Amino acid sequence: MNTSQNPNAFPLWSDEPAEKDLLAFRAVAETVADAIFDDDLDPIAIGLSGAWGSGKTSVLELVVAEIDARSQGFDGKVLVVPTQPWRYDPAVGPKESLIAEVLGALNGEFNESDPVGKAGLETFKKLVRKVNWTKAVKMAARTAVTLQLPQLDDVFGLVNDDPESLEGEKGMTEFREQFQELLADPALQHVSRVVVLVDDLDRCLPDTVVETLEAIRLFLSAKGMSFVIAADEDRVAEAIQQKFHTSDGDKDDESPAKLYLHKIVQTTIPVPALSRFDTEAYLFLLLGKAGLEDDDYEKLVAQCNELRISGGGLDAVEVAEGSALADHLVTAARLTPILYEKFHGNPRRIKRFLNDLNVRQSIARRRGFDLKPDAVAKLMVLERILTDDFEQVLDWLATNQLRDKLEALDLVANGPGTKAEPEAAPATATQDKPASKAKRTVAAAEDVAPPSSDEGFTDTLRRWARLPPALDAAAISGYLYLAASFAKIEVIDSGLPERLRDLASSLTSSLKVDRSGITDASLQALPETDARTLVSFLGRRTRDQPTIQKFSVESLLRIAVAQPAVAADVIAALKSVRGVDVEAATVLKLRPLDADMYGPVLEAWKSGAKLEPVVNSITVVEKAWDTRGN
């Protein structure tokens, strides 16, 4: 994504291999290249093993770059043939597909204008006849294989329908011998090595895995052939075991499947998981890329590499104080401990987390939730990594306990007097519950008690609470509803009787038609117990989500008139709303009301009010009450 053209856009990172070495994998690539260029190891098949997303494809890209660099002063051309068995045409056999890619690459090296080249091409065609191409060309001449061998004359004339051509031991022996002759042919004298880079073999079905390995085995008797097989060795062994129905063996490395694999692959180089430093550096470099020119980014990558070698920390990186890069450095430092532990140093999972983070932030901003990136990142850790704790927090949201529980959690996690000032709730954020498919329903809870130091919070939730910044319920409740809809979780307070849910929804709706549809007569007709339950719910929800006070406070005042018996409950509900969250217009709603009855509410709001318009409104109400009293 080009964020330079759209300042409101958030960058997304492709899953394609990185062009620059952000993962400190160059040392691995150089080791692979050492083996490829070692004459004593020729021919060779090298394994490059790592879990999915560990960066194997990025290492292969670095291997290509290293081969190109070393080939400059090398005697003879090094022909690199990339292949992905996972993407082979299913209409073509895996063995034939791999052979076709190797032969197709060699086919382009013949000079037909030269007599030596013409003679070599005849040897090449003779070898092609050993392969059963029937499956590849029986439908049309322009199939995958014919495209891979674009310079062959009359492909149909080369078709061999003899199933024994490569299936029998004799056929394979003849192919090996003729392939060795082909590489030694004067027409290919300029080609010193053929390096086949096999990627994504661990994604393939067992039949494809075994047939690909058998094709590799065909080539490994020829001098000048090298294979680099980037795949999770354990998954490849599992595929072999499934194909041949072998046992696991007493020891993992001595299982029949592993012995079969190691007969073909002489040595395996593991792709290391990212260290804690590497995780932090990777996060920082991904976050910082969008705002830097290429030259500046190159310098930043080099600086991180130097710190890695010297054993330094990223706090030594030179960034301007207050810059976006400084913010990225702080965000990376905050996220590293938990991402390093939960993602086990897997680059793809880290990159995916950042992509998800930016998608969430983009949608949240367009929905009106003006949360800072570090706040969204903290919520994303909860949503994507601590899923059980995420459901617990949604539980609090559903039962209007979010503010009190977050305050209690902060007290337990950070201790008294350490709480940072939370960011204010976004004034434009809508708190309406989003419609979503019911996957789970959040459980009910009793009315929350005042925050205490022992709320039974999980260790992971306490650890999460220590991540900065401090989060305020009013600021994050809208985002949590959005996140719940992504997860297909309906945020429903099942503690509120179903008969009152539609009523409560209408009384807090932003649509006037919904609120006016609830008549005073219908409020008067409520049983007293239902009225108390409704008042308690509206009070808790207003405390948790102050942005609904424009509607909820008016509804509470209506209930106090319609149900005098619950007036004390209404007063308690209004007092529970923090003065710092009260809006000036809300205060003015008390002006025409009884001073003796609502005086305690005004005093409670006055003690916490900070904004000048709110303080002025409180003064206006007090003067109006004094005037009426005189």
User: Helicity range of the residues?
Assistant: 40-55%
CATH topology of the largest domain: Rossmann fold
> Distance N terminus to C terminus?
67 Å
Write down the domain tally.
Answer: 4
CATH architecture of the largest domain: 3-Layer(aba) Sandwich
Broad CATH class of the largest domain: Alpha Beta
Unreliable parts: 1-8, 134-159, 424-453
Radius of gyration: 34 Å
Main sheet specs: 5 strands, parallel
Shape category? elongated
Q: Could you report the average pLDDT, rounded to the nearest whole number?
A: 83
Total helices: the number is 29
Q: Tell me what portion of residues adopts beta-strand conformation.
A: 5-15%
Major beta sheet, strand line-up: 2-3-4-1-5
Report the CATH superfamily of the largest domain: P-loop containing nucleotide triphosphate hydrolases
Number of strands: 7
Describe the structure.
Strands 2-3-4-1-5 form a five-stranded parallel sheet, sandwiched between helices. Strands 6-7 form a two-stranded parallel ribbon. It has 29 helices and seven strands. The model is unreliable at 1-8, 134-159 and 424-453 (pLDDT under 50). It has 630 residues and is mainly α. Strand 3, helix 9 (206-219) and strand 4 form a beta-alpha-beta unit. Helices cover 55% and strands 6% of the residues. The chain has helices at residues 26-36, 56-71, 94-107, 115-128, 134-137, 144-148, 164-167, 169-184, 206-219, 233-244, 256-264, 276-289, 294-310, 324-343, 347-366, 373-384, 387-398, 402-414, 459-465, 473-486, 498-507, 512-516, 520-524, 528-544, 549-562, 567-576, 584-588, 595-608, 612-629, and strands spanning 44-49, 77-83, 191-199, 225-230, 267-270, 440-441, 489-490. Helix 18 crosses helix 19.
